[in-house]
């Protein structure tokens, strides 16, 4: 299963680079099908649901997990959807909000594929995902978004995250309403065409 996913990503990267001439004649951005160390699973999880899905993706691909950790953790009160004065609501309503992140990804340049996970907040990705995307150069990298939500689709978050990672190649995203390992594995296998 890992090998199929990696071969799919390698094939897509090769085709995109060949068609767009972004490869510049070198192998930068191409994925070695035998090297899962080129895959990063970066995720933000406030309640543990997205973390669980990210773990299943790491198991299925052999990629490296990286948790996007806010400098100030979110409390249950911060996430109360019915209270319009909460921290999360204020951030989601502020187009310029960029919550600070603890630490950073070491050697981001070494990763060719970024599986990017987040919960859906108020129909969008949390603003900490914007902070993450604005912190690195994703040119030539492949981003595979995934989210967790009980009802909101991933589609409401895609245009914003794509705009923040210009130059990246985006594969179809997936919303998980449950954290079933088999559902995650089926999605990963489905990326193979």
Brief digest:
The chain has helices at 2-20, 49-61, 87-93, 127-134, 155-164, 181-190; strands at 39-43, 64-67, 69-70, 101-102, 113-119, 142-148, 169-170, 174-176.
Task: Explain the overall architecture.
The chain has a single domain, classed as 3-Layer(aba) Sandwich (Rossmann fold), CATH 3.40.50.360. It is α/β, with parallel strands linked by helices and 193 residues long. Helix 5 links the parallel strand 6 and strand 7. The chain is globular, with a radius of gyration of 16 Å. The chain is 35% helix and 17% strand.
Mean pLDDT: 84
- Largest pleated sheet: 6 strands, parallel
Q: How many strands in all?
A: 8
Output the CATH homologous superfamily. Answer: Flavodoxin domain
Quote the beta fraction: 15-25%
Number of helices: 6
Question: What is the CATH class?
Answer: Alpha Beta
- Rg: 16 Å
Unreliable parts: 10-34
CATH topology: Rossmann fold
Q: How many discrete structural domains?
A: 1
Q: What helical percentage do the residues reach?
A: 25-40%
Helix/sheet category: alpha/beta
End-to-end gap: 13 Å
- In one word, what is the shape? globular
Helix and strand layout, with pairings?
Elements: H1 2-20, E1 39-43, H2 49-61, E2 64-67, E3 69-70, H3 87-93, E4 101-102, E5 113-119, H4 127-134, E6 142-148, H5 155-164, E7 169-170, E8 174-176, H6 181-190
Parallel strand pairs: 1-2, 1-5, 5-6, 6-7, 6-8
Antiparallel strand pairs: 3-4
Brief descriptors of the model:
193 residues; alpha/beta; Rossmann fold; 6-stranded parallel β-sheet; two-stranded antiparallel ribbon
């Amino acid at each position: 299963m890992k090998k199929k996913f990696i071969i799919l990503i390698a094939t897509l990267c090769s085709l995109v680079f060949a068609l767009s001439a972004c490869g510049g004649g070198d192998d930068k951005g191409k994925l070695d099908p035998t090297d899962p160390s080129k895959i990063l699973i970066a995720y933000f999880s406030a309640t543990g649901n997205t973390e669980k899905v990210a773990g299943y993706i790491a198991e299925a691909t052999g990629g490296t997990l990286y948790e996007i950790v806010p400098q100030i953790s979110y409390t249950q009160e911060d996430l109360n959807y019915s209270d319009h004065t909460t921290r999360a609501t204020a951030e989601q309503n502020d187009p310029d909000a960029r919550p600070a992140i603890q630490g950073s990804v070491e050697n981001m340049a070494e990763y060719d594929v970024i599986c990017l996970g987040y919960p859906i907040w108020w129909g969008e990705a949390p603003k900490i995902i914007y902070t993450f995307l604005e912190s690195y150069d994703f040119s030539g990298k492949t981003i595979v978004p995934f989210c967790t939500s009980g009802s909101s689709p991933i589609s409401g978050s895609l245009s914003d995250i794509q705009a923040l990672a210009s130059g990246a190649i985006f594969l179809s995203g997936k919303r998980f309403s449950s954290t079933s390992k088999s559902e995650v594995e089926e999605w990963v296998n489905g990326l193979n065409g």
